[in-house]
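Issue: ligand-bound run for zinc ion - logging full I/O for the record.

Environment: standard queue, default settings, no custom constraints.

Inputs:
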Amino acid sequence: MVSKCVYCRSEITDGRAVDVCTPCGHGIWGKKMFEAIISNMGSARDKGDLYQGSVTSNKAL
Ligand SMILES: [Zn+2]
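Outputs:
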């Protein structure tokens, strides 16, 4: 699946969790911070952590 960078509209083909290309990400957050964001979002998605919160709150209702 191809997504587009929200800042410069260039195509992102590596399936990352954020719609921001590497040059824009480096410009906005800096290289180190951007890599941390990509890696944090990628691992959270892989483990399903992003959805655990909603499952828990549905149960509480
Ligand atoms: Zn961009």
